[in-house]
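Input chain follows. Return structure tokens only.
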Amino acid sequence: METQPQFRVASSPRHSFQTDDRRLHAIAEKVEAGERLSFDDGVALYRSPDFLAVGWLANRVRERMHGDITYFNVNRHINPTNVCVAACRLCAFGRRKDAPGAYTMALEQAWQRAAEGYSEAVTEFHIVGGLHPDLSLDYFLDLVRGLKERFPQVHIKAFTMVEIAFFARRAKLSVRETVQKLKDAGVDSMPGGGAEIFADRVRHIICDHKIDGSEWLDTARIVHELGLRSNATMLYGHVENDEDRVDHMVRLRSLQDDTGGFQTFIPLSFHPANTALDHLRTTTGLTDLRQIAVGRLMLDNFAHVKAYWQMMTDKIAQIALRFGADDIDGTVIEEKIYHDAGAQTPQGLRRSDLMRLITAAGRTPVERDTLYRSVERSGDTFTVAV
């Protein structure tokens, strides 16, 4: 797959950027020159006391790339099962199969759930779930085929790298064979979940039953090589440090140099309620905004940075549109994973709500499909610009 070009920032008068943090002056010169930031630059951005200057630089990059445009989509989340063998300390969603609250949808039930969220003609089904010890790969292949038969025009973004690796082990197939089967069944792209933080030290604490960071990246590489795009996430605000976050982004950036297969970077704030880490505090709005900004500055080869309103609230997501984010995610309809962990945001918004949020933030809303092609609507139907 062809590597995406790095994005450049137009030059501007020196006096337009002002800060008392001398470290940021050198970083600002790199940003203006379109030079890649180093690992040490990333750490400096996290530790700078001049939070607004970091945001100014990120917004400069964002506006150079996208102007005032902010993207959103009309999507539907489907979580076919919450049964999971991983038992990650970070998770409030997964259940053992005999635990109270455990569920697994029959295929007809999953297809019906998709139809229930179809009132605004969704353009995307976002499908993730637990690592069920008994469901075969055929269950997931049939799930996707059934959705494609019923909703042929809807893009199916399904299964994290963690799920794919798990499917492959259970089916005694290679990851490449597994991805090809999913693609043949109708999967159009893949979400970016399960990346968490790549550092082994952190992973052993928060998700030691999942594939490690290198395996996640290796799986994503195969996904991209087979012609599918994916997103990339980073879970922050738990036991990681600044260096762990920068390492995570540098490793994503390196893979993107090789494949160009990542569409969007999505920083996810950790919600500790109802998890084994519920003694930790939730992130602040300042932390969330700084993470958006650092992500935009470090990931020069990612076209998009998303402010996921479900995680950071709609108000912080609006502000994030001035701190480097150019995407606010979608209507979602029914989100379970983060609400089980205590998220207080609505489980879904309508298209008009998202447009209002973006407009109120002084940006121009543009509805997109999963591949960032613009969507035009007429009544209950839509067309995608090719």
